[in-house]
Amino acid sequence: MSPAITISDISKCYQLGLRAEKYLTFRDALISAVKAPFKRLAGLRGNGPIEGEFWALKNVSFEVQRGEVVALIGRNGAGKSTLLKILSRIVEPTEGSARMRGRVASLLEVGTGFHPELTGRENIYLNGAILGMHKAEIDRKFDEIVAFAETEKFLDTPVKRYSSGMYVRLAFAVAAHLEPEILIVDEVLSVGDAEFQKKCLGRIQQVAQGDGRTVLFVSHNMGAVRQLCDRAVYLRDGKMVSIGPSADVVTEYLNSASETSENNLLSRPRFQGITPCIAGFSCRPAEAGRHVASGAPVIFQIDLNVTEPIQNAAVTIMFNSDQGYRVLGISSRCEGELLTLQPGKQSVVCKVDSLPLVSGRFNVDLEIFSAGRVADYIQHATAIDVEFGDFYGNGQTLLPFEGPILARSHWTFA
Amino acid sequence: MDLSATSSPVAISAPAPIEAEIPEFEIRPSRGWVAIDFRELFHYRDLLYFLIWRDVKVRYKQTVLGFAWAIVQPVVNMVIFTTIFGGFAKFSDQVPQELRDRHVPYSLFVYAGLLPWMLFSTGLSNGGQSLANQQNLLTKVYFPRLFVPTAVIGAALVDTLISFGVFFILMFCSGMIPPWTTIFMPVLLLLTVLATMGAAFTLSALTVTYRDFRFVLGFMVQCWMFVSPVAYPLNPNAHWKVWLLRLNPMYGIINGYRSSLLGEHWDFAGLAIAIVEVAAILFFGLYYFKKTERRFADIA
């Protein structure tokens, strides 16, 4: 039997700035139309690759057999979502092709097209139609959808009055009752409460095993990937690193994704009057075989190139969330460690016994403070990716809306 | 995560019978002309219905007058234009002789022009913004994008049908009965819808790429109205410059409405020009839309 999905040499190129600038104006188009011939002249002289090109995916090829569950894993920005968008026909590949055998339904976001003013009942129909169902099909499955979402009582309430949990349940319920041959799911399991997540995972498993449908999904939950998937595809920087049995690929991914380092910090812009001394920063697991993950022991290293001695220096590492707010700071000062830095190259090493950050990407700011003034400060020195980890040692996880940091706690009656 | 205990409490639906012929398609970079996939449009027909239904339903939510707004808007427009153009500017004297003979009030003359104009202008301004306003849909799910502006026009068409009802009521109130030529109305309405679609396809695709058109749209609709005989009668034989106004497709359409509904003499040349232009606008709109469609999700 021919495979359900055949991906051959798919590449996707973005012009940098096109999306970042957000609004391409008519004036820009006129200006670039005038500039174009000159640019082309410059190009003819061989000025290297076109400026601002970014390959989100480069020559990715693999096949997915019918009835198989395959996970895409990799860090943020590895190209997972771009690949799903191409296979869902939302964006076009720049090069290459893919052949899909069967009807495709994709769930890249929970509740796409939900209208807050409409009731639950109305949104089931609207969302179902957006996902490609016919009215008759929705009629047929209506009761099943409502039962799965457990929102019977609120069917005639506008969804803007729903709690976020109810909203997510309803949205997933609609999508879960699609009957495509190929189901494409982005990281939608990261929303909703634990009970419902289980139910969704169960449903995906059922879809694949019971009904013999093909599922391609993205997840950061390595436990789920191991359990649900036959095979996994590991993407890094837009390229396919490996494909194989999910347990092997997950292990490979976790092992390789563990070290981050940035060695070029001396040249970063500083505030006026600061003599740069922070030269590099790296982050790695403290024990072999472990990863930079929630609850794992982690080592941060700051490389310094000191020109004048700094007395009683307090070194601080600050972590900021993707949304830009600060979530955690760790400082030598708080541990009573004031360091005296002598001229020359040296490194300060900081070990955290149990990393209290949830999985995700964090931007790191670095500061050295001495004698009442900032000796050096770098904003966004680098970004670290924290993997999913068993912080509590019992398999429990914090849900995304419950915050970015973790702490052990003891619960008793008083 | 333990999955063994997750048997869902819901009865599992029997899998849909796998069709003998499984649809197969290829994803690759598109080049040049992109054909319109009519089979796909047909497959998604229920979505078009639900998108129109959503727009109609949501539009008058949390308003006190609700659906009455669909009646209030054209009637207030009619009163304003009748007072200014008919009362103050005395355009009422230039209404064609055959309408004066039939004692057609100026207000009805204006209303007959407003019927196509309000559909066209609403379709243009709302349809033109529709893609830019629904980026979320464009970047998260696949469906025929043509339906986004089309649905907005569909919703405007619902209002137009209500306006037609009001028109006939006003007509009976002023003691007139519709002439037999009213049977041509569906054809003229179709022509209006096609013109609106063509223009909205072009403008929505332009607006998604160049946000300037958000601002251009407003001026465009305003200027277009001044060169269309919505609120005033136009005698093309008065001056050669006036004759030029016939090149506006809305001239032929509006005149057609008045001929059909009120019994004004037909300007067949004007109508023919309109038909040719509407066909051109529609084809260009479809062509430009399909050509730029592949980039919508990248730039939205």
* Straight-line distance between termini of chain B: 38 Å
Helix amount of chain A: 10-25%
Question: What is the largest interface, and how many residues per chain?
Answer: A-B, 70 and 53 residues
**Biggest sheet of chain B, open or closed, and with what strands and sense?**
none
Distance between the termini of chain A: 65 Å
- CATH class bucket of the largest domain in chain A: Alpha Beta
Kindly estimate the percentage of residues of chain B that lie in beta strands according to DSSP: under 5%
Q: What structural class do helix, strand and pairing data of chain B support?
A: mainly alpha
Supply the number of helical segments of chain B.
Answer: 13
**What is the quaternary state of this protein?**
heterodimer
Number of domains of chain B: 1
Instruction: Give the low-confidence spans of chain A.
Output: 18-23, 43-50
CATH H-level superfamily of the largest domain in chain A: P-loop containing nucleotide triphosphate hydrolases
The share of residues in extended strands of chain A comes to 25-35%
Order of helices and strands of chain A: EHEEHEEHHHEHEHEEHEEEEEEEEE
SSE ordering of chain B: EHHHHHHHHHHHHH
Shape of chain A: globular
